[in-house]
Records
---
Amino acid sequence: MDFSRKAVCADGFDFVAGIKIKTADELKLMRSSCAVAAVVLEEIGAFIRPGLTTMQVDEFAAEQIKRHGGKSAFLGYRKYPRHVCLSVNEEVVHGLGGGRELHFGDIISVDVGVSYRGFIGDNARTFAVGGCGVAAQRLLDVTEQALYLGIAAARPENRVTDISRAVQDFVEGNGFSVVREFVGHGVGRVMHEEPQVPNFVDRKMNDRLHTGMTIAIEPMVNAGQPGVKILKDGWTVVTQDGSLSAHFEHTVLVTDGEPEILTWPAAKLSKLKVA
Ligand code: MF3
Ligand code: CO
């Protein structure tokens, strides 16, 4: 039976090759959790400025998530000890808020996962602190553009590798490199569902995409070599060569037509929350 043509699957037929297909009711909830995640990310972006410590940013994030009635999807996940991930300059992902002070010209990757009404919304963006140099800005632009090219490939006639290829070709064509050790993922009631969505072509991860799948696409791009290592805190991932790194992420719904970006910040939060 081919489920791929259906807008949403009927109850009881909601997995294809182990990948969850969201029902219309589930998508309503998912839209609201993603809208909260998107708004919180925007609020953090507006808050960031030179002179703050990353711990102050984490505390602000916690307040905003709470104010919207959500919960951090990261706090406590595999014992993760903060509300959001804050990764500065050579830090790639999973950075822990702490005493590090933000300076003008730094870049900071902010990853926000929110649990709301039983579903997760996951998104990330790298911000310049006040402003940044042209080399850093080019890294941000290429990484963000790679995310949108990946999203454009998230269509039911495609496979996961089509997303991966779109991201990798663009990033490497611009002289940067994609991180191999961390990948995007299906997202829904839990943060990490099938399939894995690498930012490089991996023939082992060649699942077909189907309408109704919700996936987090998240290129992590290094200005230098692709290698990373984990600091002694057990979480913070940094580039091996000390080069800058950027990270952009959206939660996306595969549809019969254009992919729908569920963590688009302009989503009408108040409308979605009462739906
Ligand atoms: N967006 C990241 C991911 O999808 C965030 C996970 S951070 C963790 O893996 F702390 F929760 F692990
Ligand atoms: Co994610």
---
Amino acid sequence: MSDTIDLVKEIKRLKKEKNAVILAHYYQVPEIQDIADYVGDSLGLSQKAAETDADVIVFAGVHFMAETAKILNPQKTVVLPDLNAGCSLADSCPPESFEAFTKQHPDHVVITYVNCSAEIKALSDIVCTSSNALKIVESIPDETPIIFAPDKNLGRYIMRETGRDMLLWDGSCVVHEAFSIDKLIELHKKHPDYKIIAHPESETHILDTATYIGSTSGMINFVKAHPKEKFIVATEAGILHKMQEEIPTADLIPAPAVEDNTCACSECHFMKMNTMQKLYDCLLNESPQIHVPENIIERALLPIERMLELSK
Ligand code: CIZ
Ligand code: SF4
């Protein structure tokens, strides 16, 4: 316990000394969320990264998120507590095969979900997050064909909501595909007064059970609008920390995962690689740093800026 107290104190001291900002995703462990200057979803975190005047950005999230912060701030030092904090969804879209795919469809506008590598962003026309995906797809003229990558579940959801046909990349997130529909139905039978809310990275059969479908920040806002209600929450379980803190009167249960999952709910082991000790170490040593090649930064910046512009 005393270790934790010292780490909190030391991280705060170093943050001031180095003019650093700590940006944390909702899926981070509670201690990291508690010490962060800002906790949010991919969109909120990129907006904060774009406007910060800190010299050092400590990105408590996964690699592609820290890369986005670096692309927006090439002059700044961007550190990630654990460089191995990757993402199964980003990994499901390797740049060589994706480039070949886009070349087969040169007339298509390429929209990529932010959960992808900097190389994939560099091959894109516009980036989106789950908070603005519908708006971004709707900004493309009806007659223009679209490639959407890398998340097929989010892609299918957008197609259903907008009525637009899109060519989908076959990628997905292990965490959002780990929800068990049988266990969810069983849980809902036991608690019929709970409403199901889900992230659109989840599979269609899970989304079909949901009263509300939206990004992590969308889900928090939905619960805020119904503060006395009860919810089963189908996204990474780390979100329950902020959700419960912001809406203490709501009753929340994480959606159950399949039997062989690491926990009864669904947790992203990449997100959980970051610890308070690693956060302290990376701030102290200004390492490990995120480096993105200059030619990739040049090409990846425009599609990210287009997204930020459309999200104002
Ligand atoms: O699954 C993720 O990585 C999500 C939901 C990120 C985000 O904030 O949109
Ligand atoms: Fe990637 Fe899924 Fe983890 Fe998000 S929850 S970082 S999409 S593996």
